[in-house]
Amino acid sequence: MLHALKPRTLRRLAALLLLAAAGLQGSPAAAADDPGWTAEPAAGGAATSHRPSFYLSGPAGTVLEDRLALANTGDRERVVTLRGADAHNTADGAFAVRPAAGSTGAGTWISFGAAATVTLPPRTRAVVPFTVTVPPASPPGDHPAAVVAAEGGREVGVRVDLRVGGPALAALTVEDVSVRGHGAAAVVAYTLVNRGNVALTPELALHAEGRLSGAADPRTARALPVELLPGRRVALTEPWPGAPAFDRVSLRLTATAPGAAPATATATAWRVPRGAAVGAGAGLVALGAAALLLVRARRRGPPGEPSGEPARPQAPAPRSEPELTGASR
């Protein structure tokens, strides 16, 4: 109860509370939550329009233009460097950007010219133009890239969806189907390959049928959390918590994507419990040992009959020494 405290104690308590509040406001953790600067596509025709990424299209040999908006939201000056980069899928399907020295495709077509380094005073915003020069021999289709802004060890990538004019081909295949794990942890593993020249947003349907358990409830096609870029392959897994414990199962996976023909892959998997598999292995070992003993017994034959094996020469019995009795002399 505050009214029971002495005035000196109240003053000390108030001072401690003020210090704690000041420490929270100026703590490094709170400051780290604010990156201090942003990079995004500049607004389009309307002043309030927002674009999550750049979209550019044109024939081979053309030069395309767009603008990047940089904003310094902090109280100190920022020096931001800009570059273009190739984009690709990681092994699990995520969208990623190549490092500065790893780009050989559309990332090298992006140029900021003399504005590749931008100095931003505190609380200011700048709009930086850039060009995309499409080489004359560029093949048609999607060429994913990104604009990368870097400052103080932090990098921000802004996606660039670039399409070169010409025939668009959507083609998808499913490969390497297998089953991993047991019980509730069972999954169907597979690989999706984009064999066309446009990015795909695939869907997958799974059908399983066992020799003993019969047909399982077929799964309708569902959208996969991946955008598959041209020429890329990704390894994915589909949960299968209802996998039978003991059965021979036939699997059929069907992948679809807008504009692409359905792609189907099949596989057969034996589902055997782990304990049963160990027991079966021990049983096979025991059966092999019994068979070996039976063969040896047949070779020896019944008692009193010659065996089918050639007689082995017997070593001569050692001569026995005469037994000595009486006292020694």
Summarize the structure.
The chain is α+β, with helices and mostly antiparallel strands and 329 residues long. Helix content is 16%, strand content 40%. The protein has two domains: 34-164, Immunoglobulin-like, CATH 2.60.40; 172-274, Immunoglobulins (Immunoglobulin-like), CATH 2.60.40.
Task: Quickly list its features.
3 helices, 2 domains, Immunoglobulin-like, five-stranded antiparallel sheet, 19 strands, 16% helix, 329 residues, disordered C terminus, single chain, alpha+beta, elongated, seven-stranded mixed sheet
Describe this structure in words.
The chain is an alpha+beta fold. It is 16% helix and 40% strand. It folds into two domains: 34-164, Immunoglobulin-like (Sandwich); 172-274, Sandwich (Immunoglobulin-like). The chain is built from three helices and 19 strands. The strands form four sheets. Strands 2, 4, 5, 7, 9, 10 and 11 form a seven-stranded mixed sheet that branches. Strands 14, 15, 16, 18 and 19 form a five-stranded antiparallel sheet that branches. It has a four-stranded antiparallel sheet with strand order 1-3-8-6, with no helix packed on it. The model is unreliable at 1-32, 276-292 and 317-329 (pLDDT under 50).
